[in-house]
């Protein structure tokens, strides 16, 4: 998983279409079970998706 929440495939390439948030990102962000933290991840992804 990248810092931008992109899932990494078996070849080590970051996906441009598959992202993860919440407990699935625990390996990268350690503790990410609280709703406020997950909300911030979702906000960052939404901003990245809608950026020009």
Report on the structure:
This protein has 52 residues and is α+β, with helices and mostly antiparallel strands. It has one domain (6-50). It has 2 helices and 2 strands; from the N terminus they run ββαα. Strands 1-2 form a two-stranded antiparallel sheet. A hairpin with a 5-residue loop joins strand 1 (6-8) and strand 2 (14-19). The longest helix is centred in the C-terminal third of the chain and has 16 residues, at 35-50. The chain is flat. It starts with 5 loop residues before the first strand and ends with a helix. The relative contact order is 0.20.
Number of separate strands? 2
Major sheet: size, sense and barrel closure?
2 strands, antiparallel
Would you tell me the overall average pLDDT?
89
Distance between the termini: 24 Å
Secondary-structure element series: EEHH
Strand content: 15-25%
Structural class: alpha+beta
What is the helical fraction, as a range of percent? 25-40%
**Helix count from the secondary structure assignment:** 2
Low-pLDDT regions: none
Shape assignment = flat
> How much is the radius of gyration in Å?
11 Å
In short:
It is built from two helices and two strands; from the N terminus they run E-E-H-H. With 52 residues, it is of the alpha+beta class.
Task: Break the fold down into its secondary structure elements and pairings.
Layout: E1 6-8, E2 14-19, H1 26-29, H2 35-50
Antiparallel strand pairs: 1-2
Q: What features would you highlight for this structure?
A:
52 residues, alpha+beta
């Amino acid at each position: 998983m990248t810092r931008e929440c992109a899932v990494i495939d078996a070849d080590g390439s970051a996906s441009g279409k598959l992202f993860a948030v919440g407990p699935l990102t625990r390996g990268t962000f350690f503790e990410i079970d609280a709703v406020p933290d997950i909300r911030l991840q979702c906000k960052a992804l939404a901003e990245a998706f809608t950026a020009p």
